[in-house]
């Protein structure tokens, strides 16, 4: 199958805040391996079919880091951001080094550990909802609940003060830049972030407590094969960004999707046992998940009948793949009881999201508490008037106005 000419600019804009671009279905059907132009002006290859995306994410020939000289630059700024930065190169990309890192860090994000955090998460969610109600209608669900809850949780896990959450949010946004920030602003913010986390790691090494970074430091001292200070620094920064930014956005989008069609919310009120499958379906149905996962090809490889040369930068659109009609019956419908639901929202293979149990737990808790405390919740504006987050590699809604 031949590739299309590079006529599409990427990311492909959508005509509605919670709906996918029409081009996704067209590409899946007619051009699943498409050439696109990125905000930087560089070209990349876009994958939109489920099988292709899953294949590439699991294939070690497609590497995670985009620091190679011939890799496409994603951003329109000189600094490459999250995927191209020097900080991204600190965590090993593959092999035993990567397995060691996932083994050391991953055991703190097991489903069992996250389940133990549920009562504390529910308590935080209830307090945040009570505070929103006290401030009166309408409220902004993203600012009142979606953003602060995952921030409180990840800050507690890392042992950093939640009072610094606004600084974390700004630093995270600059790391996730696509077109929003200029070079000088990004460089200054990242220097501040690195300095902050360096001092935090040093303080935990001097006086460990019971947070994740302290435990990693203790384990390093005991076993002699733990993480270096630089790896701890990169781990702390990565977890702080991933631990609140994506989940904060997903909380707002999930509630927006469920309230966009009132019958969805009513169905959950009638049968709260559907919360878990509703969360999974929200993750699958999310058409505003952001840029997708970029990969750099180290050797010539074939995908879906198309030969990709060495040096190709591939963009895996998990959101487009999650709408693949060949994999999901009724893919364009939001089915709250869908099972099984093998969506790719958290990626696939060796680089699947380390914190997916944390994200799932937070989303489930938020939905359970909202259904119980605010059964009359509804959007305070028409769904088409919701505003997308712009200029970042993550997708989200800038605010979610609600009333009850």
Automatic annotation (TrEMBL):
**Keyword set, alphabetical order:** Heme, Iron, Metal-binding, Monooxygenase, Oxidoreductase
Quote the InterPro entries the UniProt record gives. Answer: Cyt_P450, Cyt_P450_B, Cyt_P450_CS, Cyt_P450_sf
Q: Looking at the keywords, is Oxidoreductase present?
A: yes
Its required cofactor(s), as named, are: heme
Top-level taxon of origin = Bacteria
Alphabetized CDD domains for the sequence: Cyp158A-like
* Record bears the keyword Membrane: no
Q: Which family does it belong to?
A: Belongs to the cytochrome P450 family.
The protein's name in its UniProt record: Cytochrome P450
What organism is this sequence from? Nonomuraea purpurea
The organism's taxonomic lineage, starting at the top = Bacteria, Bacillati, Actinomycetota, Actinomycetes, Streptosporangiales
């Amino acid at each position: 199958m031949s590739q299309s000419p590079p006529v599409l600019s990427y990311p492909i804009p959508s005509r509605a805040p919670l709906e996918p671009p029409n081009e996704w279905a067209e590409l899946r059907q007619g051009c699943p391996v498409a050439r696109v132009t990125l905000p930087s002006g560089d070209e990349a290859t876009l994958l939109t079919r489920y099988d292709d995306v899953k294949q590439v994410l699991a294939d070690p020939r497609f590497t995670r880091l985009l620091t190679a000289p011939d890799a496409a630059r994603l951003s329109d700024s000189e600094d490459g951001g999250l995927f191209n930065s020097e900080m991204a190169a600190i965590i090993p990309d593959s092999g035993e080094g990567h397995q060691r890192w996932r083994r050391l860090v991953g055991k703190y994000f097991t489903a069992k550990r996250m389940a133990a955090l549920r009562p504390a998460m529910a308590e935080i969610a209830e307090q945040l909802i009570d505070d929103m109600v006290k401030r009166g209608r309408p409220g902004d669900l993203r600012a009142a609940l979606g953003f602060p809850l995952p921030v409180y949780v990840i800050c507690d896990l890392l042992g950093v003060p939640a009072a610094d959450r606004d600084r974390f949010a700004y630093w995270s946004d600059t790391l996730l830049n696509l077109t929003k920030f200029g070079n000088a602003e990004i460089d200054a913010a990242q220097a501040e972030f690195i300095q902050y986390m360096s001092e935090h790691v040093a303080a935990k090494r001097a006086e460990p407590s019971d947070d994740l970074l302290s435990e990693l430091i203790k384990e390093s001292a005991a076993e002699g094969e733990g993480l270096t200070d630089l790896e701890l620094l990169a781990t702390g920064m990565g977890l702080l960004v991933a631990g609140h930014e994506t989940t904060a956005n997903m909380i707002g989008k999930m509630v927006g999707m469920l309230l966009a069609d009132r019958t969805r919310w009513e169905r959950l009120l009638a049968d709260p046992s559907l919360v878990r499958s509703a969360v999974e379906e929200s993750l699958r149905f999310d058409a505003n998940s952001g840029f997708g996962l970029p990969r750099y090809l180290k050797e010539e490889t074939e995908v879906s009948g198309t030969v990709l040369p060495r040096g190709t930068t591939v963009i895996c659109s998990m959101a487009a793949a999650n709408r693949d009609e060949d994999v999901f019956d009724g893919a364009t419908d939001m089915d709250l009881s869908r099972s099984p639901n093998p969506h790719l929202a958290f990626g696939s293979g060796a680089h699947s999201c380390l914190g997916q149990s944390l994200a799932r737990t937070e989303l489930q808790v938020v939905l359970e508490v909202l259904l119980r405390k605010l059964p009359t919740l509804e959007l305070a504006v028409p769904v088409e008037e919701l505003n997308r987050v712009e200029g970042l590699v993550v997708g989200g809604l800038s605010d979610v106005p609600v009333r009850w």
